[in-house]
Amino acid sequence: MASQPPSTPPESFSIISTLRYDPSIPTTISNSATDIIYPDPKDSPYYLLRFHRDRLLNAATHFNWPKAIDFLQRDTTQFAQFLDQSIPDRTKPWRLRIALDSHGNCTVDVNPAAACSPRSLFIPQSVNFETAEKQQFPPPWRLYLDTRPIKPSAFTTHKTTVREEYTSARERVGITSFVDPEEVLVFNPKGEVMEGSITTPYFRRRVEIIDRGLGSDEDGVAWVTPPLSSGGNAGTTRRYALETGFCVERVVRVDEIVDGEECWLSNGVRGFIRAVVVLRK
């Protein structure tokens, strides 16, 4: 039986976006010549800054929060200046959790960011995992499959403080910490993969010629990520991967998932993460 979507009243939750502050980002981009594709502003230490602002604005618009929309009607420079007030030490990487309520009140929680290679914040250059390892990507995470479906709702499409469904999915497969290299795939009642509990997934699949992007090989196999119509979150790294052509959208069914298959995960704090599917824990 599928989990029911929450019936939370608008006043009781916030829209959120979590991103990485990392002073190495502008330097890595400037030293990379032309092999890194990355959206403006390229000189900001805030990872995918504009995408996070846009994500919050899209959510505020969906929930019809005029005061939140007014707060977000600022350019990336002004948005960065607001976030700067929360950074305790600009020489270190930080994890920022931005929360905005219906009254336009915005809070920023800051914690030390997990260590990661600067290269992992950008689109992977190769589909070969051995090559990725040489690029200083860490060992792969273990990726499990939830044991019951989740019903899509506005709280799965937009990231909010209503996270009970994702917390329950992690508990069902025995994930007890956000520090451990483990993740769970959630899926809808149709048997379509939606997303990970804290990440966007990408799988290697054969696609039609018209759908092939930069991540395709000569055999027509490409990285694919579930479409938003499956119910998952409109994540910032997902947008990054799609706009650069690293992946294309395609429905990914649960019965397609293969034990031991290699894939990518991504989110706004850790960038791109190698993963291996574990169906038999």
UniProtKB/TrEMBL annotation:
Superkingdom of the source species: Eukaryota
Keyword terms of this UniProt record: Aminotransferase, Transferase
Gene Ontology MF term list: transaminase activity
InterPro entries (UniProt xref): Aminotrans_IV (IPR001544), Aminotransferase-like (IPR036038), BCAT-like_C (IPR043132), BCAT-like_N (IPR043131)
Gene3D superfamilies registered for this protein in UniProt: 3.30.470.10, D-amino Acid Aminotransferase, subunit A, domain 2
Protein name per UniProt: Aminotransferase
